[in-house]
Amino acid sequence: QLQLQESGPGLVMPSETLSLTCTVSGGSITNGAYYWGWIRQHPAKGLEWIGSISSSGIAYYRPSLQSRVTISVDTSKNQFSLQLTSVTAADTAMYFCARPVTTGTTGPFDHWGQGVLVTVTS
Amino acid sequence: EIVLTQSPDTLSLSAGERATLSCRASQNVPSSYVAWYQQKPGQAPRLLIYGAFRRATGVPDRFSGSGSGTDFTLTISRLQPEDFAVYYCQQYGSAPLLTFGGGTKVEI
């Protein structure tokens, strides 16, 4: 059974870089032309797609975050990662990694990690 | 960017009743690529419906989706106690760019 697990610091200082990793188990990240995604949810708010990446490294980003976001993939570790630079309190959120139900497109998502809460604070 | 507006914000119903949730898009969603998710407190979202009406694996048939163009609906035919949650719509017709609605809370 495919499982995704986010990991990374729960606290980040303002102006620094948020770095998270999603480890995929129960299947290979290179199996099928899936786009692996990052989604965040601000406290008591709705969901926001951050970006997605294929196992070959093709990445797409939310336009409003594009200047600060990098998503990368490490097929040897069966992982993909998120970096968000110059964070502010507005980046405080629960961050989820996820995989779509079908190949060849960035959504919708039927496999999700449990999420990791990242708080931006000095 | 396609903006999704969900209504109502909150739906107060009793178990056994029918729930009708609306999702309106700011422009046509190509191929009716709309999905619906259920989210309970402290959990990740769960995919219920995609392609406007296709149920995801393991989703009970009391959940159904409909609609096209700019207007989409999630219907829960007879609410069960475990169905009280927040529901989000998502469009992927403009993929790779994805957008979500603001959510509808279904409460007792």
Overview features:
heterodimer; A: 122 residues; mainly beta; seven-stranded mixed sheet; four-stranded antiparallel sheet; 51% strand; B: 108 residues
The global form of chain A is globular
Number of strands of chain B: 11
Number of helices of chain A: 0
* Main β sheet profile of chain A: 7 strands, mixed
Number of helices in the DSSP assignment of chain B: 0
Q: Overview of this structure, please?
A:
- The complex is a heterodimer of chains A (122) and B (108).
- Chain A is mostly beta strands.
- Chain A is built from no helices and 11 strands.
- The N and C termini of chain A lie far apart (39 Å).
- Chain B is mostly beta strands and 108 residues long.
- Chain B has strands spanning 4-7, 10-12, 19-25, 34-39, 46-50, 54-55, 63-68, 71-76, 86-91, 99-100, 104-107.
- In chain B, the strands form 2 sheets. In chain B, strands 2, 4, 5, 6, 9, 10 and 11 form a 7-stranded mixed sheet that branches. A 4-stranded antiparallel sheet of chain B has the order 1-3-8-7, with no helix packed on it.
Brief rundown of the structure:
The complex is a heterodimer of chains A (122) and B (108). Chain A has 122 residues and is an all-beta fold. Chain A has strands at residues 3-7, 11-12, 18-25, 35-41, 47-54, 59-61, 69-74, 79-84, 93-100, 109-112, 116-120.
Topology of this protein?
The complex is a heterodimer of chains A (122) and B (108).
Chain A: E1 3-7, E2 11-12, E3 18-25, E4 35-41, E5 47-54, E6 59-61, E7 69-74, E8 79-84, E9 93-100, E10 109-112, E11 116-120
Parallel strand pairs in A: 2-11
Antiparallel strand pairs in A: 1-3, 3-8, 4-5, 4-9, 5-6, 7-8, 9-10, 9-11
Chain B: E1 4-7, E2 10-12, E3 19-25, E4 34-39, E5 46-50, E6 54-55, E7 63-68, E8 71-76, E9 86-91, E10 99-100, E11 104-107
Parallel strand pairs in B: 2-11
Antiparallel strand pairs in B: 1-3, 3-8, 4-5, 4-9, 5-6, 7-8, 9-10, 9-11
